[in-house]
Amino acid sequence: MTMRAFRGEMLSVGRDPRHHPDAVEYQPDGLLVIEDGLVIARGAYADLAPRFSGIATEALSGLIVPGFVDAHIHYPQMDRIASHGEQLLDWLDRHIFPAEKAFAGRALADGVANGFLDELLRNGTTSALVFPTVHPQSVDALFDAGLVRQMRIISGKVLMDLGPDGLADTVATGRAETEALIRRWAQKGRLGYAVTPRFALSCSDAQMQAAGDILTAHPEVLLHTHLAENRHECAAVAQRFLGAIDYLDVYDSFGLVGARSVFAHGIHLPDRACARLAETGAGIAVCPSSNLFLGSGFFNFGQADAHGVRFGLGTDIGAGTSFSMMHTAGLAYQAALAREESLDPFRALYLATAASADLLHIADRVGALRVGQEADFTVLDYQATPLLARRTAGATLAERLFAMQILGDDRLVSRTYILGECAWDRATSAFAQPGVIAHAGADARP
Ligand SMILES: [Zn+2]
Q1: How remote is the CA of residue 98 from the centroid of ligand 1, in Å?
Q2: Which of 114, 147, 297, 367 is the most buried (most CB within 10 A)?
Q3: 274 membership: H or E segment, kind and range
Q4: From ligand 1's centre to the CA of 346, what distance in Å?
Q5: What is the pLDDT of residues 115-147, one digit of tens each?
Q6: What is the arithmetic mean of pLDDT over 42-60?
Q7: What is the Å distance from ligand 1's center to 311 Cα?
């Protein structure tokens, strides 16, 4: 048994402050006590210190928050971030599909997967729901890299039998490869599986039905796909599925809408679809930087709230323009304002942590730094840039949090911890495998 403690300013928002005014948990001088990777105590330092006086305590400067949970991101698109010129469907054809074809090669997939997970850690993200490519080896590469880092990574081979040459599977191979991957990776480390049809236009009716059958046979896995992102996409879906009430109804008719379904975007939804999402418990991964980059539109927070739809936040790299969930939270505020809604900075932090964890069905394990949860957290630096230092000096907690969301990027993150061990240290630019170099350079005290 290894026990250790961290002292510092701590903030988490484990429930939606819109419904729970007491959701914000804050200790200006807190103590977080960890045993074997789990939080066993958290509270004011003055209250807890006498109980844990014999434990090595490390002081961390900055704001300690739960590790971020990215509810929608594509790892093979990492190296196509910032590709110029088009909206969704043309952008896929011109920039993304050619890049994804290269993931037939395992060595390339390994290289990108490792660089991708390091980039998540540099941005304070410790859990993510990730699109790989159609190739099963792209899933193996990501899961192998996630297992080494002990990160909470959920992914699954992309199903796209109507995809372009070189990226199309078939109903039979898609089903067989998905089943084999579920068997291979079940119960390994902190990994999870998501059945991943790319989106309605990429899959035949038979393949979407197969995806529904797999979900029924494996109640522990998630469903991860895209929904109503772009107006041209929505028009094409309406044209192909003449019998469907709306875009969500297409997925519903194949058994793909349920409490474990995560739909990216959901920008252009009728009220009926929002009501159906709420009724089934399915959720939306809101991706504001991607929506702005591709000119897709703005998520309707007011409509979603009016219907009680669950939602979290995703970066949607490579249409998204930043790996930073803090920056993404700042853009969510701006997207909400574009529709005359206001997003509170504490609620934005909730969306980037516990709400996304809830979408991914891992909220019992991560997202709030609660006693019993896994000790994944990140340390945010108020002094990350000269401008941020000026703006946060003497400011209230809400002002400091909001300034970090609006002005912050990867430079905000001074440390990222996985299961209580330092996995990224900005001061030394070092990634550490958990348990290996965790204490290097630490301000350790007896
Ligand atoms: Zn996406």
Answers
A1: 16
A2: 367
A3: helix 271-280
A4: 25
A5: 999 999 999 999 999 999 999 999 999 999 999
A6: 96
A7: 15
| Continuous segment of H or E residues that includes residue 58 | strand 57-66
* Ligand 1 centroid, distance to 155 Cα (angstroms): 13
Q: How far is the CA of 31 from the centre of ligand 1 (A)?
A: 38
Rounded to the nearest angstrom, the distance between the alpha carbon of 142 and the centre of ligand 1 is: 17
Torsion angles phi and psi, residue 7, rounded to 5: -115, 135
Task: Report the distance separating Cα 367 and Cα 353, nearest Å.
Answer: 5
Ligand 1 centre from 442 Cα, in Å? 38
Helices (H), 288-441: 288-293, 301-307, 325-338, 345-350, 356-359, 386-392, 397-407
From 352, 344, 347, select the one nearest 328 (Cα to Cα).
352
| Residue 269 DSSP symbol | -
Burial class (CB in 10 A: 0-12, 13-18, 19+), 111: middle
Predicted pLDDT at 433: 58
Instruction: Give the Cα-Cα-Cα angle 430, 432, 435 (nearest 5 degrees).
Output: 150
C-alpha 100 to ligand 1 mean position (Å): 13
Interacting residues of 119 by C-beta distance below 8 A, sequence separation 6+: 78, 323
Cα–Cα dist 199/225, whole Å? 6
- Tokens read off for 261: 């379904």
8 A C-beta contact, residue 17 and residue 373: no
Closest CA to 129 of 219, 256, 222, 13: 222
Is residue 347 within 8 A of residue 13, CB to CB? The reply is yes
Looking at 123-230, list the stretches that DSSP marks H as alpha helix, in order from N- to C-terminal side. Answer: 136-149, 171-185, 205-217
C-alpha 10/C-alpha 369 separation (Å) is 9
